[in-house]
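re: ur question from the group chat, yeah i did fold both. here u go
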Amino acid sequence: MIPNESLEIFRTPHWLIRHSAEAAIPGYVVLYSTHALASLRELPKAASEELGPLLQCTVKAVGDVVKPERVYVCLFNETGSAVHFHVFPRMSWMRKFSPGADDPGNLIDGGVVFSAARRAKSDPAAIREAEPQILEAAAAIRKLVTEAKLFHSRSRL
């Protein structure tokens, strides 16, 4: 099991960025609200003001570190947990999960790819095997997000 403190990337009073430990996918991070809110519409103004720049910086860092074909940002909140965003690197190997993947003219179904790739890489043995790459990606993303100094006077790790 990967230690939680190794997965934490960045924290503000309103947000926590943490590498996912639920799938063996380096660069897959989650941006969690520190407020116990079930809906984005309930977000305090200060948290809303941080969200855009923090999401943009996180997407850029994930892209720079793992070089995916795309970076998905997903908000579902189906579990009843606090608002959180999945920042998910869609790698070329994940194309096989999209319906019609053999047809070069067919658009990729991002939702299907996201769900199938997570499921395919959720085995605890696969996560243990990918731990060095996950920790390396978390450290590199942490460095880039921290260096961005988006909220340097209020941020901490």
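okk and heres the other one u asked abt
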Amino acid sequence: MLLAIVVAIAAGACIVIARNVNSILAEKDGLLTSTFFNYVTGFSLSTVFLLVSSESIKQSYNLLGTVPLWAYLGGLFGVAVVAISNIVTSKISAFYMSLIIFVGQLFTGIIIDYFALGILSVGKVLGGLLVVAGLIYNLYVDRKIEDM
């Protein structure tokens, strides 16, 4: 259990660090270059993890035929998210960026659960709205401090 918590925290930290590194690379070398290297790095590390994991390549290859074609659009959405992140990251703080991405992922998950499984979690909706309310309040306080 502790290992899972440590890995989850490390993964979250890696996402914030990668987002900032990608943003800097986008400013220096261009948006397409930073997005390309983000995906090359992700693919390379994913391949290493696949090779050292207990999953066999044959087993993973067998899954290709069972995945619906529309599921591969995730890569396209991923490219869009990385590209938009590279543009926005330099304009807002890492704190706000992380919260906005979290809220977007939460509500997207709620929508997918509703349409795919017919499940609507009131707790998740209320939790997401609470985070949005906190984000709006924090933005209000920050603006008020800037005006002083």
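fwiw on the second one: The chain has a mean pLDDT of 84. The chain has six helices and no strands. idk if thats what u expected
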